[in-house]
Write a structure and sequence with these properties.
mainly alpha, globular, Hypothetical protein af1432
């Protein structure tokens, strides 16, 4: 039982080396953030939003910690890479990968984590919808960070374009506006 947890965490550790590909392919950032860094920041934002909105914080944080773990096996695909793969094929690859990531865990943990990951994928609950928006919003935080580090603002604009329409939640819209305002102050 504990060996399964050790094996699982060792797989998760490897996410520290899986680069978020969009930053590299779109902006040319040589050492972009890892999937682990993105997931951690997303989970912290989820914790704050869940507590602010009196949502199920544990579920929301777990969702953001688990949402990309399949990328340890299949890698991180940027927007255009995803478009080159048939949607059903990509879903199949992701589901096979998440099951492989969870195998070896005690059954009740594997079932719980798969259910939370699936809930995120299906986008039917308020937590899943908020989690998806947080996933996008964290990317905006990172884009602003890269701009502050001196990376090409024009190339980073692609991450800001049409981002606002992804936010339905009023609090997340307001956070986006605050980030946008800070971006404009740096112009």
């Amino acid at each position: 039982m504990l060996e399964g947890i050790v094996d699982f965490v060792r797989k998760i550790e490897r996410l520290k080396k899986v680069e978020r590909s969009g930053w590299k392919s779109w902006v040319g950032i040589e050492n972009p953030e890892s999937v682990a860094e993105h997931s951690f920041a997303s989970a912290v934002l989820a914790m704050c939003i869940a507590d602010l909105k009196s949502l199920d914080a544990q579920k929301l944080v777990l969702m953001l910690l688990l949402h990309d773990i399949h990328e340890e096996i299949i890698g991180d695909y940027d927007y255009f890479a995803k478009k080159r793969i048939e949607e059903n094929e990509l879903k199949k690859l992701e589901e096979e990968a998440i099951r492989k990531m969870l195998e070896g865990l005690p059954e009740k943990l594997a079932e719980k984590y798969l259910a939370i990951w699936t809930e995120f994928q299906e986008q039917k609950t308020i937590e899943a919808k908020i989690a998806k928006e947080i996933d996008h919003l964290e990317m905006i935080f990172q884009a602003l960070e890269y701009e502050n580090e001196g990376y090409n603002k024009d190339k980073l604009s692609v991450f800001w374009e049409n981002a606002e329409e992804k936010f339905k939640d009023e609090d997340l819209k307001q956070i986006f506006q605050l980030l946008k305002k800070r971006r404009n102050l740096n112009a």
